[in-house]
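Weekly structure sync, notes
Attendees: PL (lead), two postdocs, one rotation student
Agenda item 3: pending single-chain targets
PL asked that the sequence for the first pending target be pasted directly into the notes so everyone works from the same version. It is reproduced below exactly as submitted, 419 residues in total.
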Amino acid sequence: MRRLKSLILFGAVAAFPGALAYAQVAQTPQALPPAAPPAAVPAPQPPVVVLPPPLWDPRDAQELLAFISQIGGEGLDPADYDPAGLIAALRSGNPQVLAQVASDRFNRVASDLALGHVRGKEREDWHIPDPDLDNGRLDQLLRAAVAERRVSHTLRSLLPTHPQYRDLKNALSITPRSEVAKSNRIRLNMDRWRWLPRDLGAKYVIVNVPAYYVALVENGTTRWRQRAIAGAIKTPTPMLTATASGVILNPWWEVPKSIEPEVRGKKGYVPVKGKDGKVQRWRQPPGPSNALGHLKFVMPNPKAIFLHDTNARSRFNNDVRSLSHGCIRTQNVLDLATELLTDDAGEWTREKIDEALASKKTVQANFVKPLPVYIVYFSSAAATDGRIVNYTDVYKRDAKVIAALLDQQPKPASAVASR
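Predicted structure, written out during the meeting:
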């Protein structure tokens, strides 16, 4: 856990008047420019107070030790939390040593349960923030768990609640230890669930890239599910979340710079010129040949990835559907848009949508309530009957995650809750 440091900077800006300039001939003094107002000095901030770890009752430390010993059921390795060090602290009989060691182990376990064991670049192109645990909340949880003597309860409260995590956990529990590859695949996908926010929202759209499917989920039930086309191997879809506020009907396609060489000068594409007359970018107008089809979702994000229709719908029949430049082509996306636009007594009925499409005009239709969209990467998932379905690891990311997951070097305490 990276410890936050308070850096207080004090400074003042001195204004130095310009030197008088004299004309070499007339020696006439120039008027001094007005002095700039002094820069505001930021108010000093109080230093961050780092409290000593709480004192542990040995019985609570024993409870933590028992929790660590069975953490394999969550797809994690007990060795990553150094149970031997905790046993040694218990045997030392030194309350300060036990406080330090037990608090460190609690923080490691809590952080991994809430945020996942695999961090940073090992996740590979994963850009979904997880607000479930920060350093301040971690410290609060630790102190409350020790004060209230609810160590196991507190740690269990950090686990994912999604049914998929539960089903993967159940599958792991019945997988023979001899089937190492199968176990590791389940474990890494359990960890991916820990990378996500614990609460995805009452209603959300989720895209699982290896499965090539898009789903609308509300109150834990899948309302709508259709095929998707994701990014090709050379242009993979990044994992991200964005808020969808509506759709654009009859959209223009703003051709990304990376694709521009493929369309430059071709029939059906319109150049956008700057004041100097040079082409700045290319666009494709609405119509039957438009790559975005009838509509695209409005879901701003730094990666410029969105769900959209397509003019090549036969591609949805392919078993392998990693074909796009990164965005998510969605089968029957007009039906999804209609569902969302009519939710919450929305005024955009299917008839009104069809009228707007027939007009050939570009129109934005907004949802009454925006909703989150998650684009994720699960190579194993549970079917409705609890069976585990394995998907092709299309972007070859599993091996790297497994390697990071199996690293048995304990993480230093200074990096526990850092992202």
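Discussion points:
- The first helix runs from residue 58 to 69.
- DSSP finds eleven helices and 15 strands in the chain.
Action: rotation student to compare against the earlier draft before next sync.
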